[in-house]
# Entry
Amino acid sequence: MSLPRPLPGAVGLSHLRAYEWEAADGVCGGSPHLHLVCTEAYVVTGGRGAVQTLSPQGYREIPLEAGAVAWFTPGTVHRMVQGGDLRVTVLMQNSGLPEAGDAVFTFPTEVLADPERYAEAARLPARSGPEAEAAARRRRDLAVEGFLPLRAALEAGDPEPYRAFQRAAAALVRHRVPTWRELWRAGALAAAERTGGQLDALQAGEPEYLAEADAFDTAPSRHGGWGMCGRRDEYEVPGATLHQDG
# Structure
């Protein structure tokens, strides 16, 4: 496996417009989820809203407005909520891993415990059209259904349901780790190792690698996809970013 020209640091890149669908708690926004090994960052480019997070520090709601940056480490449950035309550029660590299943929705316990049921609930039947929209909304609603009890328990001082969700998420994706490891080695690790090689070359007075300098550009390969948190504009950098349906 080779990822010859990844984005800086082998990060993933996308743009999101937060969903405006109202959920059971009266809040408009996306599907709560966590990542198992990837840190995610929001760079807010317009509008306003918030990101709701669950972590060992409890429940938090971080305001989002143009110019703000928020990021969350693996295990942090996050839910983007709409406040008015919220638009975000997403920077994702370890390009390829989130697309390979690193993200897990906060579905109710009985869904998480059944891999086939989880996969069916998370799946989008199409990339566009009314059927895809309906499925994206259903999975958002199911994720919120599981999220609200986790939040209520944390706010009441009981972290065990949140920790139980983390354990269930880890068990659900454990079989994917060998694939993730190969993506990491070919992507983020290889990018870091190239820097190490360049430093070695400079120290040795051998900057010949600079002869390989080049410039690249790209544009969104897909507009308005049904992401986890909103309508998603994606960039498929050849060899570096895999397609994801959410």
About this structure: The helical segments are 109-112, 115-122, 130-155, 160-173, 177-203. Residues 241-246 have pLDDT under 50 and may be disordered. The longest helix spans residues 177-203. The chain has five helices and nine strands.
